[in-house]
DNA sequence: GTTGGCATGTAACCGGTTACATGATTTT
DNA sequence: AAAATCATGTAACCGGTTACATGCCAAC
């Protein structure tokens, strides 16, 4: 259902668009928040048209179909936004890596965490440059409205990246603090299972 | 591939277990980080056994099969943890909601954000109580090892929840600041599309 | 006239969820 | 004897990814 909502949201906020347009928006603006390829978008648009949530408003050159949101579609979108309790089915590989990283030797764990941190820092820089690009009007006194779409989400993502970076830094520091000072103990890189034979 | 890694990780950290045991661990300890139902776990265990990553170590009462990780399995796990660059395919409905919330009227948006914040605060409290329950030994001077599994992940999740709560609080404040003071402008609850007809 | 971007779609596959299905053992 | 829990599996469905397939139009 979420792809449907994302599409309705884009049509509501930015006006009529074709499947191609929407796919490109998913690649650019929305990509930090949701991803979808055209191969899922086209069938979904067809189903939504059949369901009366959107309608073909115009047909263009290369078989281009421009879709617009219908009142039914707006109602559906509103219902979701107002009534939907977000079921947070987190399934990010990063979480899993955070969970399993203690299985590695300290030096290895630190190396892995450094790599993760580097990636997040690059991502953060990218998002910050995006934020800097936003027109000043949006940062100032402009009134509430669809133009704001994305500003809060960007802030949201920025905070997430920052939290990830902080976690990595603190975890690296913690491992270094605990690491046995004896260099000989940095032994063979094998998972040690003897310490906890059972749960 | 990630379910496979999660299963290998559990077997490496906590020793041999049955599919049933693993499914229960997914419900409890791992659930904050990764979810999987038994209907995916059993076939995956079968495939991993066929691939030599795990092996049936014992058979119990009700057809119970206890699996243990093999050297090949450990190697696979290590390879993933060391070499895997996390492809962060975030697809959390919360992100989407953050993105679309400006489509609502200020009052509505605030109500939605408050609800989200409440949920995260409950989750945070739950995680904090989990953290408090951890044996003191783990917080002190214990050496690096598989016993640490979960402590960093818990910290990770705590930081995420806190960042979400902060974002919601600041966003609510921002909307309130911008909201037109005139009560009459809190008009019909319809998505206004006139302000931005095209991207 | 050829390259590149516009534009739409389908098919195979993969991983996850929900529901179906069965039966053994232990506890009350 | 009944209920709860242990324990394993399969099937239908759904959503997403990758790859396949086609063709139009504009620019160089």
Query: What about the largest sheet of chain A?
Result: 3 strands, antiparallel
Average pLDDT of chain A: 85
Listing every helix as H and every strand as E from the N terminus to the C terminus, the arrangement of chain A reads HEHHEEHHHHH
Number of helices of chain A: 8
**Total count of strands of chain A:** 3
User: Largest interface, counted with CB-CB under 8 A?
Assistant: A-B, 90 and 91 residues
List the helices and strands and how they pair.
Two copies of one chain form a homodimer.
Chain A: H1 2-14, E1 17-18, H2 19-27, H3 38-50, E2 54-59, E3 65-69, H4 71-83, H5 93-100, H6 106-133, H7 136-139, H8 151-178
Antiparallel strand pairs in A: 1-3, 2-3
Helix pairs in contact in A: 1-4, 2-3, 6-8
Chain A binds a DNA duplex (28 and 28 nucleotides) through residues 2-3, 18-20, 23, 35-40, 42-43, 46, 60-65, 89, 91.
Describe the structure.
Chain A is mainly alpha-helical and 199 residues long. The first copy, chain A, has two domains: 2-83, Arc Repressor Mutant, subunit A (Orthogonal Bundle), CATH 1.10.10; 93-181. Chain A is 58% helix and 7% strand. Chain A has helices at 2-14, 19-27, 38-50, 71-83, 93-100, 106-133, 136-139, 151-178, and strands at 17-18, 54-59, 65-69. In chain A, strands 1-3-2 form a three-stranded antiparallel sheet. In chain A, helix 1 packs across helix 4. The longest helix of chain A is centred in the middle third of the chain and has 28 residues, at 106-133. At the A-B interface, helix 1, helix 4, helix 5, helix 6 and helix 8 of A face helix 1, helix 4, helix 5, helix 6 and helix 8 of B. The first copy, chain A, binds a DNA duplex (28 and 28 nucleotides) through residues 2-3, 18-20, 23, 35-40, 42-43, 46, 60-65, 89, 91.
């Amino acid at each position: 259902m979420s792809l449907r909502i994302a599409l309705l949201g884009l049509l509501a906020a930015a006006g009529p668009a074709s499947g191609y347009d929407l796919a490109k928006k998913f690649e650019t603006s929305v990509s930090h928040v949701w991803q979808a390829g055209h191969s899922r978008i086209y069938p979904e648009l067809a189903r939504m048209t059949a369901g009366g949530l959107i309608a073909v408003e115009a047909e263009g050159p290369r078989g281009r179909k421009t879709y617009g949101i219908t009142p039914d579609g707006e109602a559906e979108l509103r219902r979701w936004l107002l009534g939907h309790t977000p079921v947070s089915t987190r399934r990010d590989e990063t979480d899993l890596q955070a969970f399993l990283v203690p299985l590695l030797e300290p030096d290895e764990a630190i190396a892995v965490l450094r790599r993760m941190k580097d990636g997040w820092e690059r991502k953060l820089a990218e998002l910050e440059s995006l934020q800097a690009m936003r027109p000043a009007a949006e940062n100032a006194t402009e009134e509430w409205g669809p133009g704001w779409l994305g500003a809060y989400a960007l802030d949201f993502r920025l905070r997430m990246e920052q939290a990830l970076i902080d976690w990595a830094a603190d975890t690296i520091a913690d491992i270094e603090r605990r690491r046995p000072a004896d260099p000989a103990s940095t032994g063979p890189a094998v998972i040690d299972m003897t310490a906890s034979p059972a749960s």
